[in-house]
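Support request, please re-run this one:
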Amino acid sequence: MPDASGAEALSAAGVTKRFGGLVAVENMSFSLAEKEVLGLIGPNGSGKTTMMNLISGALKPSSGEITLYGDPIAGVGSSSVAKKGVARTFQLVRMLPTMTALENVAAGGVFGHARRWGRELDDYAHVLLKRVGLPNAANAGVSALTYIDQKRVELARALASDPKILLLDEWLAGLNPTELKIGIALIEQLRTEGCTIIIVEHVMHAIRSLCDRCIVMNSGTKIAEGTPAEVLADHGVIRAYLGDENA
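Re-run finished. Output below.
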């Protein structure tokens, strides 16, 4: 298990997001240690992706603070947050459809935290394609790739900026059992390498095997925090997922 006792990489303090009369995230506070893998889980509609959007800069909090290594990032915009060192994947794969796999990966190195150009960028994109298991896909059009391979390209693109924190928003969603094993192994490799990661995921096997700690959300609020074993045995968590009769 990576050492999760290092410096505080990310902190959220009293973060709330309102959309008119709807409170999507309410008074969320938590911290993420360097090299920690943190699971953000909860039933559909609990506010997990909204929280990821707040961290990545896609949304501005209605109130509260988010810091990256002590640097405030709440409300500065997604491009600024990316340049500061936060990279993400999405629930639905977002590819640049007219570009090759190599060009898609290279885009992450141009617009993210650690910028590269020219030959250095191409070489690094090749390295990342190999790292995610696609050493021969550089010149392939992304529309011709399988779903798991598109996910691999998206992951390589996120890694191309050498992010300080990687956000994986249901990256394992939609994979068949064989692809799921490949996906979990890839994240496990990143975990072993000491990446700092927040995972939003519904695949509980992945949460149990990958996460050092979990935060559970329901109706926009945090209802539990602890190790995967602790939170998945919590009566409040069971109630949120399965209803009162199962708690």
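The longest helix spans residues 177-192. The CA atoms of residues 43 and 169 lie 14 Å apart.
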